[in-house]
Amino acid sequence: MAPHLRWLFLQFLLLLLEFSSAAQAQGNITLGSSLTPQGPNSSWLSPSGDFAFGFRPVEGNTSSYLLAVWFDKISEKTVAWYAKSSSDGQESPVQVPSSSVLQLRDDGLLSLRNPSGDEVWSPQAPSAAYARMLDTGNFRLVGADGKAKWETFDVPADTILPTQVLPVGQQDKVLRSRLIPTDYANGRFLLVVQPDGNLVFYPIAEHSTFQYDPYWASNTVGNGSRLVFNETGRVYFTVKNGTQINITSAGVNSMGDFFNRATLDPDGVFRQYLYPKSSMVRNVWSSRWTAVSSIPQDICQAISVKAGSGACGFNSYCTFDGTKNQTSCLCPQRYKFFDNERPDFVPQSCDLDEEAAMAEFEMTLINSVDWPQSDYEQYSPIDETECRRLCVIDCFCATAVFQASTNTCWKKKLPLSNGNMAESVDRTVLIKVPRSNNTQSQPSSGSSKWKKDKKYWILGSSLFFGSSVLLNLLLISILLFGTYCGISITSKKKLQSPQSSGSSILPPKIFTYNELEKATSGFHEVLGSGASGTVYKGQLQDEHPTSIAVKKIEKLQQETEKEFMVEVQTIGQTFHKNLVRLLGFCNEGTDRLLVYEFMTNGSLNEFLFGDARPHWSLRVQVALGVARGLLYLHEECSTQIIHCNIKPQNILLDDNFMAKIADFGLAKLLRANQTQTYTGIRGTRGYVAPEWFKNIGITSKVDVYSFGVILLELVCCRRNVELEIADEERSILTYWANDCYRCGRIDLLVEGDDEANFNIKKAERFVAVALWCLQEEPTMRPTMLKVTQMLDGAVQIPTPPDPSSFISSLP
């Protein structure tokens, strides 16, 4: 093609694209209109096409969608608003699967329904005559009189846009940060215009609305106060007497050249961002969001709370680079980020004498860092050597802080809060860690190795506006989620990245029988057996000898053949950190074998019911892992999977004691248009839901029931059925736990367990969740999504109804 023709062709394509975009943009949205997450009708555009309202896929989870407003003309599709639902006073982002529907109904109400037809979100608004997505980024429901009945500007999330106002004293008109940029759950910071006319930034206790001491305030008074983001791009706070206080920079010369937003970021900083619209502006301005103003300037110094974790998560420390306007949160050596509220570590035993303690533990050094709280002992005068020794031999001491100028030593317990690194900090931190043979030195500041261990709070310009968009997305995609640092048992262990349902994975490998016979040394070492076959330990002769578990299907009946193919197809298409990975299979002649990753710590059955009681923190970790694995099977797979045989023997533990659900051979698959299935009774005595014995359909709620039993077993460290117990009232755990809960005696369930008694409120929460799962009526049991939210403390738990009977679970 000639050069001039190629140029004309490209211009024609550009015109077509512009026409297509303009064609999709619309004015009034009429009654009866609807959107679905997938397909051509997934959003409604503003007249200019700048903004869209509709479904956005959740990053890292291709089967889950937000109801949101976003900037549609930029590649990032930055979300400016997202819907939240309230439950028991707590808010959480509305996330729905692909078959959900949003409809502006004929009666004028906007309703979002999941694939089962249940309404999961609807604004509290009168009937509308039509809806409209405005070029300001505001989505409105409009009455016949032309007045707005409801609008997204009235219920902001973490962002405000030009022409948007936050008035005084309205509870729903506040900004709440996200947890992290890719997780829309409520974060740890709040911006609110208080009823007294004061604009205040608060740190918030996670999974609650409790406000710690403010870290920034306008210190103003007046009923007419409000936060204004005006048409010129200026963000200011106006009080009753007309005084205006600039919150960000004084506007932009040409608003037509930039997209503009102001966001309360996950690090607690309120930043105003610009993004160039035209190619002419992009020639002199980077094609990314750039922060032009921020408040407070140094979040590390701004936040210091008497309770709570401070600017960063517990056991982390915060550092601010003023030359780069960059905030970072770092973990000390041998600490890593975790996604729950307790570090995963084996604490120092208080039975160790001084010599044994000195042999097992050592102190590593970080300069110019301090955690100003958590002190429980102080020594002065003292030298650094003695400060080290006193912490090592004290089983309560996790960290010692030494100040050379005053020869003072402070001993501290976990968790540590308000950590801060700065040149002005005249202190040295000594971190207690287990000794290891790893002699690789660790720098005492934010080194690259530390940054590899960071999951979260790599903040400021480096993440949000300091590097290329592509690099930012890549960085975010490799970060793990979490807000706390915890001790790593050995420096050789690596964090495992959580895998989403959209992860790209290799299909299961096809093995020959001879390969597996050789790998298992002739099927010599038996790991376990079940109704469908026996499992053997083996080792592949590959580049890095891989330990495997080989399940040999021993009965070649037609039903077993079908079961085998179901298991291969099911596990081969699933990949999640809380599911056992299928590496391959053998389908040779009459031989049917499945090859799994090997779990070094065996089954939950062995872990929980052995001679020693596992640490409470590990039991909590297992409970959350099993819940997330079931959530994936039920709601995040492209095809819903009901396991049908959840029991401790089918929950395996890897070398980090991460729980992984195994044995999908009994799973029933549901097509997208199915909600229940009929099948023969499956499962194990003590874990079987009552509906198995009734002539009703089986749903995913059978797994919820089984999880409830296991959750009680994890709390109490005993089997559900122990008929040999002398006290007959305690022989059935589900009966006894219900009685203890009704009498307010959760302490009886964890008698002799000091760790659980120390965390008695969490134990009570877990028991309440279990009792909800054990409701005899399946529809009364929560979904696994709700279960995970209740376990995490993200929502309050109403008192569960007293189950009418548990006896049907014991055939």
**Order of strands side by side in the largest beta sheet?**
39-43-44-42-41-40
Number of domains: 5
Distance between termini? 78 Å
CATH architecture grouping of the largest domain: Orthogonal Bundle
Give the percentage of residues in beta strands: 25-35%
State the name of the first-level CATH class of the largest domain: Mainly Alpha
Mean pLDDT across every amino acid position: 78
Q: How much is the radius of gyration in Å?
A: 29 Å
The low-pLDDT segments are: 2-25, 339-345, 437-484, 487-504, 668-683, 804-811
Number of strands: 48
The structure class reads: alpha+beta
Domain Protein kinase: 521-807
Main location: membrane
GO molecular function: ATP binding; carbohydrate binding; protein serine/threonine kinase activity
Signal peptide: 1-25
Please give a handful of descriptors for the protein shown.
21% helix; Hepatocyte Growth Factor; six-stranded mixed beta sheet; disordered N terminus; Agglutinin, subunit A; 28% strand; disordered C terminus; alpha+beta; five-stranded antiparallel beta sheet; 48 strands; kinase; 811 residues
